[in-house]
Structures are given as C-alpha cells and as structure tokens.
Design goal:
Shape of chain B: globular
CATH superfamily of the largest domain in chain A: FAD/NAD(P)-binding domain
CATH class of the largest domain in chain A: Alpha Beta
Strand order of the largest sheet of chain B: 2-1-3-4
Number of strands of chain B: 8
CATH architecture of the largest domain in chain B: 3-Layer(aba) Sandwich
Strand order of the largest sheet of chain A: 10-7-6-18-29
CATH topology of the largest domain in chain B: Rossmann fold
Number of helices of chain A: 17
Bound molecules: flavin-adenine dinucleotide, iron/sulfur cluster
Strand content of chain B: 5-15%
Shape of chain A: globular
CATH architecture of the largest domain in chain A: 3-Layer(bba) Sandwich
CATH class of the largest domain in chain B: Alpha Beta
Order of helices and strands of chain B: EHEHHEHHEHHEHEHHEHHEHH
Oligomer: heterodimer
Number of domains of chain B: 2
CATH topology of the largest domain in chain A: FAD/NAD(P)-binding domain
Structural class of chain A: alpha/beta
C-alpha cells in the first residue's frame, strides 16, 4: 500500500497560502508570497502555488484534492494557521486524494507571523522564509502509517470531589470498571464542607450525599480513599498505576461503621483538614457524619497508643475487632486505559495579606471557616457567632477578591467568590439580621440565575461598597470604632475613604491550584499553566483533554469554577473516556522518536528530558528505549542525544536541517534607492 | 564587613543623634563603613512627583559615585528610610526599564558619570545588622540589657513599602526590629501602627492632616503603655517627636510618647552613655522611660497556657507561623 502513496520520481509540490479572511491577509501580502513561491521555489519542486481566502473551507480542501489529481502533486505545503488547528484537516484532504497524509506540511504564518507583528513588509518576508522552510523540508518527508493501540476499558479517576464523583458514575453506569482514588478519608471534596449552594440555596449535603453513596455502593466502582497514586507508567490504552492505600488501622472488611470507637476515643484535636481549624475531631475519626466510606481513620500522630503505648479504648469497644494497630500501607497495582484527574483546588492563605489581620484578629474569618460556622453539622451547629463562640455579630463585612485579581498574589479572577460572598450575605441576613457590607471590585454574576440572586441580596438590604479593602484594624479613631474591627476602603463610587466598624469580617479567599499540582502534573506527564492549573489540550475546543493522550482533566483542577461547571466537566471527561473505550483501539500519530540501539552509549542524558515520561532505560542492555505510544514526537531527546542515536520519524535530522536551510534562504531583492 | 555608607541630609542635622549612635554601633559590631564622597541630597519624598527624570538623576548620581568608589564591597548602605527608598527605587527603575536607564544615564553623562543598574546593592542599616551581623553576634555585645523597658517597634512606611528588593520579611507585618529589640533585652509590645505613615512632609502642607496621622500613631502607643517608640527613620522621629506638642494642642490631649532611634537603644544596651548616643535632645522627654531600664518590674507570672475547658465555647484561632508576636 505504501507504494501507491509513495511519490516516485521528482517531488511535485503544491503550495497554498491562506488569507484566513483578514487574519493573515491583513498583514501579509499573501498573493506576493504565493507568486514568489511559484517562481523562486520551482527548482526545489514547486509546480504550483496559490492563495485562497479560507483554505480550511470545503472549497479550499477540494482545491488541494483536485490539484493533486490534476497536476500529479506528491507533496503539499499549506501556509496558514498553526498545525494544532488544521494539520488534520489538510492531511485529510491529501489522504482523500490518495496521497499519504504525512507528505503534507504546514507553515504557521498566522500564529507565528501575522498575529505577532504589524510590520507588513517584514511579515511578508518572514512568511516567504517559512514557506521556503516547509517546502525544503517536505522534500524529505516519508510515508508513515499510524500506530494502533488497544484500549483497556478500566479507568482511573484521581480526586473524589464532585467532578471526580460525576465522572466515576457516568463511566461506571456504562458498565465499565472505575478506580476512584481519593487522598482524604472520604470522598465529597470541598462541596461536603458547605452548608448551602448558590444560587438555589439547596443544602449541599442533601444534593451531594446521594451521589456519594451511589459511588460507595456501585458494583463497577472500586473506591480507594485515604490513598494516593504513587507511580504511573505506560500510555494511553494501557497505563500501569501503583496506588498506595495508607493504613487506617481499621480493617475495612470487619468495620460496620458503628462509630463506637470514635465515641469512646478520649483524644479530641483541632480538625485542620475538613474542619479547617475551627472544628474538632477525635484521634480516630470520620471527617463528617455522611462520610463515604464510613469506616474511620486513626490519626497516629495524635493517638495516645501510638504516643505512649497505652489506651486502646477504640479496640476494646469495637464489637467486630476491626481495629488493627499494626495495619500497614497496602500497595495496589492496576492497569487502566484512561485517567481522569479531578484533583480540585486549594484556598488562598489569608495570612499572606497581613493587612487583613487574619490570625491576629479573632473575628476575621475565611470563607471556608464561615462555611463551617454556618453549617448545621459544624462546630456551632450552624449558629453564626464570633470567635468567642457565643456572641452573634450585629454587623458583618464580607470582603471579595482576597488574593484574587491582585498582582501581588493571584492575578486571575477566582470566578466563584462573588456568588459565594452573596450567598454569605444572604445567610447572615437570614439568620442574624446583622447589618452587612460587601466590599467588591466588580460583581461578576454571569451564570444562569446568578444576577437574579444578586438582585435578591440587594433587595434584602445588604450594603455594597465598590473598592478594594486597604486594611482591617482594631485601632479605633473615634468612639464608634471602639471595640470593633474597622474596615478601611476607598469607596470608588462615592470617591470617599470609608472606615466601617463591624463585629465580624469574612474574607472571600480565592481559589488556588493544589499545592502539589506541579508534582501531580509531572507524575501524569501533563503540564500546568504559569498559574499552576492543569493545561487543556485546547482551552475552548478541547477543555477536558490534555496534550497527553489518555489523560483527561475535570473540575477546578483546570481553573476556578462553580459546581455546575465542575459537574459538566466531569461528564465531559467521562464521555471522552467512554468513546475511547467504545472505539476499542486508538490510532496515534506516527511522529515518534526511536533509539538506534547500536549507537546509544547509555549516557542517559535524554532520560529526564522527556516531558511525557516516554523514555526508559533498559538496565540489562544499558541502552535507552523510547515508548512508542507515550512519545508525542516533541523532538527534545533527538536534539539532546550527543551520539545522534535518536531518530525522529517525521522530524529526522535531514528534515530539520532542510527546513532550517529553507528558512535561511537569501531571497531579499536588493533595495533600489 | 565593609560597605559604603550614604549619610543623607537629615542625618547631618536633625537626625545627627541617629548618625552618631549608628557609628558607635557599627564600631562595636566591627562594621567598616566608608562614606560615599561628594554625595548629594536624595531628593526626599516629593521630588519624584514633580520631575521624574531629574529626581532619579540626582539619586543616580549618588549611585554612580558609589559604583565608582566601591572597592572591596558592592553594598551601599543608608540608614534614613527616604534615602534608602530613593536609592532602591532609582536602581530598580533603571534595571527594569532600559529607556529610562538611558535617560538617567544621559543626564549623568553631563557630569561625566555613568551608572550600571544593579552594580551596587542598596541596603538599610537594620537589614545589615539583622541579616549580616545576626542576632547572636548582637547579643554577644549586650552588656546592659534593656530589661524593664516597654518598647514599640515603629518602622514607618518607607522602609517596607514598596520593598522593591524584598529585603524585609513583610511589607505590612515585618518583624526584624522587634526581634532585634528582644535581643537587646527590651519588653517588646505588638505595636499595631508599626508600618503606618507618620505623615511625612504633611506637617508643612496641611498640618491638620498631619496632626490626625500623628495622633493615630501616638494614641495607640499610649494605650499600649509603651515607654518608648523605636524608629529607624529621621522623618518619623521628627514628626512624632517635634510635632507631638502641636498635635496635643490641636486636639486638647496630653499624650507623651518619646521616640528614639534603634541605634540609640542598641548603643545603650552596648554600654554607651546617653550623651555619647545623642540622647537628651528630644522634645518629648525620654528620661522617665530610660529610668526604668534595669528596674525589673514586678514579675507578672506568664499565664500558663490553660487547657481549653470543656465548657469554653470559643472557637480555635488560626495557626500562625512561628514569627508572629502578639495576638489576642
Ligand atoms: C467557600 C466556598 C463556597 C463555595 N460555594 C459554592 C456554591 O454555593 N455553589 C457552587 O456552585 N460552587 C461553590 N463553590 C465552588 C465549589 O467548591 C467547586 O466548584 C467544586 O467544589 C469543585 O469540585 P472539584 O471536584 O473540582 O474539586 P474539589 O471539591 O476540590 O475536590 C477535589 C478532590 O480531589 C482530592 N484530591 C486532590 N488531589 C489529590 C491527589 N493527588 N490524589 C487523590 N485525591 C486528590 C481532594 O482531596 C478532593 O476530595 C464554593 C467554593 C468555596 C471556596
Ligand atoms: S468501632 Fe469498629 S466497627 Fe465501629 S466504626 Fe470503629 S472500627 Fe468500625
Ligand atoms: S487508641 Fe488512639 S484512637 Fe483508639 S481510643 Fe485511644 S487515642 Fe483514640
């Protein structure tokens, strides 16, 4: 088959220069580029060169197809947008005309030329260079056949927040097996900590816990909580995953979840995890009543038995002998075809803004502390009180955008804090009748029913001050301020400096990437944006995929978002996985690197460079090997190998050098003065 | 350790005691400081809003001189907050903005000078003492601990904001000065207004605004029963000291909070006399406060961290990093 698609004889190259409407043609003289290519590059093999308004349109694609047939083209160069966008399109056109698609090459004269300059003359010149490079390169292209890999139908989901829960249920309901790995003792994520959810104000637990128990009981879901992924090897269709199931000191098979151990444990400690430092828990505990799974975890650091060697009260009272102080971590190996990362977010540490006094002034709370405070299952049974635990506040300030939209901290908008602040205003209004001041920069209530909720809070009489809070202090300047927290802010609508004395301040801290997002990204061979959120394959058109095949992302792990958006992404990622499973096998780009064993000296220089972890070292043979399916053809190792032992199909030294030669071709016409 | 020292105008006149005491402290700590020769005024606080290029060019001149005279060191130290900030800012802007760098250097070339941004490291004396000398070395030199003296660390605004070189722990809640005073044996109070502006030159522009700002600093100091405020800025010292009486008249109050330079307190702890350290020239009499030194006040037993009783309904406070003093 390769024969029919392998060009015989001299290269016959067609060049197509796209206008992209005015995207390219507004800056680059496309006609000149086309004419120049036809004239100057004919010695290399260009037989025709055209410009066209939209090459990606069906008319543009048909043009390529008919030219291939009519003029016997055996290679095609399209100067247009980035290959990320349309390489597939043009390769498809070539293939339809009977040509091996890998004889098609693109020159990105939009992203790399017209979008990044205003200088028309230079833009046109650069476009010519890039076309020359592509033409010179394509001469050396070879026919390639796609790589096919089978897809293992089992899926790994990391993170059991609402996004991970949703994805797990979607996949499991189609009959396929899922491993759901959650780091904490229970699934549920942040949503489990909330009292109510905006904008409908339905009780968070009421809508979340049915989903949680469904996960817990689902025959196709293997739930591993208090567990973490230790290692990932392999590639799409066939990942080998090592999971560490941390010791809980409780034998899951025997535990009935009766909770008597928790009740009898004499040690109470501050709950810094689920309880965000304002709640308490025992040394043996479940983070909350509806935890899934409901068997407890023993906290060795605080347990008297582990500290002093005595107590064992839990063991004594457990009717089923489920307590096992000797229990060790368990290592579990699973093979999965696809992975979804739904690892969620962390919150901005309010201590980083000492001018807001968190940690210094008892009555400055963070948003998550307040969620716990107003939660019926929280430390005050839902009573909204000051840090003394008894006094109800008469006035409350809610500060938006803490750590967000702030060039000293996170420059992005955390997306949910406006609505969360409005939710708090409503809850405070409803339960305490206190006077409420919201300090905001802009109100962003863009989703369905969100602005209506804002109107409702306005109608309830909450006061809004537009301005960033400069400082929160307890140093009074007059009698009215005595004993209060004073919020100082510039009211940018009134053009005034305001000092507003209140009893309680709530800081709506922003969302941040998980503290370990970089390590997790590296472990799974994906990348993070400069802010630390997982990077999508395409921010608009492929928001739940990553550049690594078989690794999908969902929920707040990709950036701040609300529950509906997190759930949608959970479903979307699941749909992508299900479609891969249904396909049974996947065709991968044959653009790959491979090692010539005889030349490899075993120096290992390339070993740590691969961004996709595709390189392995074979100890027996003392040579490096590249995993075909993991390799994404980035070429890093090819360039790095000092022995020249790595060759890239689709980016051989010959091809790259030819391209560089083309790029540097001297075609400038001497200027006539 | 050797460094170049930029004295600045204030320390020649109103803040002479700062300079005198600092020199003694430097001597005790084995710091070899060489004055920049032929230095000029840093332009103080307002000039940069009047003429940006000129204001930075006059600072640039000092930097250029320092670069030229630097031998065996690339550190340029200032003790006045305004001088420190101006030197830091000019160096920073020249480093960040190539066009501006060219503009300033163009001006400097008229005087046959040239400055390569970043070639000297601008530091504050406090930064040198806590970060290069270190608390332990300071402690070794303490012969007369300041026990019995309740002090409030008052940084003012200019040394910490904007801290372009990130020399201090935090722009709002720094702790270097407190740690130093603790090493000297003083009783350090958590002074909430520690990084508030003293009003700068407002006393000359709108005294009412200035009095209000001064009061915001003095009143809490009185309420915290602070014996002495400790500053590292000639401007702060002048405003709190020389204008306290005017402020009192304006509000009908009778606050009395003396203010000294940190180097004067270091000098006292190192055993120098008040006279050697220039103490005694203040408007607000500091003698009653200094008389407390060494007189151990009645030992107030530090309340044992009582375990939270079962009936105590209060919620736990957030955990804070080690370096936090105060709290409630
Ligand atoms: C104060 C506050 C109030 C809010 N109120 C609302 C509201 O009323 N309505 C609304 O729509 N949205 C609200 N939100 C937003 C909401 O919290 C998020 O949209 C939602 O929780 C995102 O779900 P998630 O599954 O993506 O992430 P998460 O809830 O963060 O879940 C991620 C899970 O992954 C686990 N995990 C992380 N890393 C690993 C790892 N390496 N291995 C294993 N497990 C891991 C975590 O333990 C966690 O269980 C609020 C947010 C805040 C901060
Ligand atoms: S007492 Fe035993 S059965 Fe009951 S929750 Fe504890 S470990 Fe499980
Ligand atoms: S042995 Fe540890 S966990 Fe069990 S009851 Fe005692 S303190 Fe609690």
């Amino acid at each position: 088959m390769a024969n029919s698609k392998t060009p015989s004889g001299k290269p016959r190259i067609g060049v197509y220069v796209c206008h992209c409407g005015t995207n390219i043609a507004g800056v680059v003289d496309v006609e000149d580029v086309a004419n120049w290519s036809a004239e100057e590059l004919k010695d290399i093999g260009v037989v025709l060169s055209r410009d066209n308004k939209f090459m990606c349109s069906s008319q543009g694609q048909e043009l390529i197809e008919s030219d291939i047939k009519e003029f016997g083209l055996n290679r095609v160069v399209v100067a247009a947008c980035s290959p990320h966008l349309h390489e597939k399109t043009f390769r498809g056109a070539c293939e339809r005309a009977g040509m091996n698609p890998f004889f098609c090459e693109m020159a990105s004269i939009r992203e790399q030329v017209s979008w990044v300059t205003k200088d028309k003359k230079k833009a046109t010149e650069k476009s010519k260079s890039m076309v020359a490079g592509a033409v010179n390169r394509v001469v050396y292209h070879e026919a390639l056949e796609p790589i096919k890999v089978p897809i293992n139908p089992t899926t790994l989901i990391v993170g059991g927040g609402i996004a991970g829960i949703q994805a797990a249920l979607e996949i499991a309901n189609t009959g396929h097996e899922v491993y759901l790995v959650e780091r904490e003792p229970s699934i549920g994520g942040h949503m489990a900590q909330f009292d109510k959810t905006f904008p409908t104000l339905d009780c968070s637990a009421c809508i979340l816990t049915p989903r949680m128990s469904e996960v817990g009981m689902h025959p196709n879901i293997n739930l591993l909580t208090w567990s973490e992924v230790e290692n990932v090897d392999g590639f799409v269709g066939n990942f080998d995953v090592t999971i560490r199931k941390k010791s809980r000191c409780v034998i899951e098979e025997d535990c009935t979840g009766c909770g008597i151990c928790v009740q009898k444990c004499p040690i109470t400690v501050i709950d810094d995890e689920f309880g965000v430092g304002i709640g308490t828990r025992k040394a043996i505990y479940t983070p909350f009543d509806q935890a899934i799974p409901n068997y407890p975890v023993l906290d060795k650091e605080n347990c008297t038995y582990f500290i002093k060697g005595t107590c064992r009260a839990c063991e004594k009272f457990c009717a089923t002998n489920a307590i096992d102080f000797e229990q060790q971590d368990e290592i579990i190996n699973v093979t999965v075809g696809n992975i979804i990362l739904a690892t969620g977010y962390d919150l901005f540490d309010a201590r980083k803004m000492p001018n807001y006094g968190y940690g210094r002034y008892p009555n400055v709370f963070t948003s998550m502390e307040f969620e716990r405070l107003c939660n019926a299952a929280g430390p005050t049974n839902g009573e909204i009180v000051l840090r003394d635990g008894v006094t109800a506040p008469k006035s409350v300030a809610i500060v938006h955008c803490v750590g967000s939209r702030d060039k000293n901290h996170n420059n992005y908008c955390s997306a949910i804090c406006c609505m969360q602040s409005l939710k708090f205003a409503h809850i405070v209004y409803e339960r305490t009748g206190a006077e409420i001041h919201n300090f905001y920069i802009d109100i962003r209530t863009t989703a369905k029913n969100y602005d209506e909720f804002y109107q409702r809070v306005l109608d309830e009489g909450t006061l809004f001050v537009r301005g960033k809070v400069a400082e929160i202090t307890d140093v009074p300047q007059n009698e009215a301020e005595e004993g209060k927290l004073i919020v100082q802010a510039e009211d940018t609508l009134a053009g005034l400096q305001r000092r507003i004395p209140v009893d309680m301040v709530i800081l709506s801290v922003g969302l941040e990437p998980k503290g370990d997002s970089d390590e997790v990204a590296h472990q799974f061979g994906i990348s993070c944006s400069s802010n630390g959120w997982f990077t999508e394959k395409h921010p608009k058109l492929d928001p739940v995929s990553t550049m690594t095949e078989g690794i999908f992302i969902a929920g707040c792990a990709t950036g701040p978002k609300d529950i509906p958006a997190s759930v949608s992404q959970g479903s979307a990622a699941a749909a992508r996985v299900i479609s891969y499973i249904e396909m049974g096998e996947l065709e991968l780009e044959p653009v790959r690197a491979s090692v010539i064993e005889e030349i490899c000296s075993g120096c290992k220089i390339c070993n740590d460079l691969c961004p996709y972890n595709a390189i392995i070292f074979i100890e027996d043979k003392q040579v490096t090997e590249i995993n075909e399916a993991l390799c994404q053809g980035c070429g890093t190792c090819v360039a790095a190998c000092p022995a020249g032992a790595i060759v890239g199909t689709g980016f051989s030294n010959e091809q790259i050098l030819a391209q560089i030669e083309g790029l540097m071709m001297d075609f400038s016409v001497p200027e006539v003065v | 350790m050797k460094y170049l020292f930029y004295p600045g105008c204030s320390m020649q006149r109103s803040a002479k005691p700062y300079l005198d005491s600092l020199k003694l402290v430097e001597k005790t700590l084995g710091l070899e400081s060489v004055d920049v020769e032929d230095w000029n005024c840093c332009g103080a606080t307002e000039f940069s809003s009047v003429n940006r290029t000129a204001s930075h060019a006059i600072v640039g001149r000092n930097l250029a001189l320092a670069q030229e005279q630097a031998s065996g060191t690339d550190e340029l130290v200032a003790a006045c907050s305004a001088c420190y900030l101006n030197l830091s800012k000019t160096d920073h802007f020249m480093r960040e903005d190539a066009d501006f760098n060219a503009l300033v250097n163009d001006a400097l070339s008229a005087g046959g000078l040239e400055y390569e941004p970043g070639s000297v490291k601008v530091r504050h004396s406090l930064d040198i003492i806590v970060n290069n000398v270190g608390y332990d070395a300071v402690k070794e030199k303490v012969t007369k601990p300041l026990s019995g003296l309740r002090v409030g660390a008052y940084y003012g605004c200019m040394i910490v904001r904007p801290d372009v070189n990130e020399r201090f722990s935090n722009p709002e809640e720094p702790y270097e000065l407190e740690d130093l005073l603790e090493v000297l044996g003083a009783e350090v109070v958590d002074f909430k207004m520690k990084t508030q502006c003293c009003s700068g030159h407002m006393t000359q522009i709108s005294s009412e605004v200035a009095y209000d700002m001064i009061k915001q600093i003095v009143k809490p100091a009185v309420e915290e029963e602070i014996d002495v405020l400790v500053t590292l800025c000639p401007m702060c010292q002048l405003n709190i000291d020389a204008f306290q009486n005017e402020m009192n008249k304006h509000f009908g109050t009778n606050y009395e909070v003396p203010i000294l330079y940190f180097s004067q307190l270091m000098g006292l702890a190192f055993g120098y006399t008040e006279k050697e350290l220039g103490i005694g020239k203040e408007f607000v009499n500091v003698s009653p406060a200094l008389a407390k030194i060494g007189k151990t006040t009645e030992e107030v037993p530090t309340p044992k961290k009582k375990k939270k009783s079962k009936s105590d309904p209060s919620l736990p406070m957030p955990k804070m990093p080690i370096h936090y003093r105060g709290g409630s």
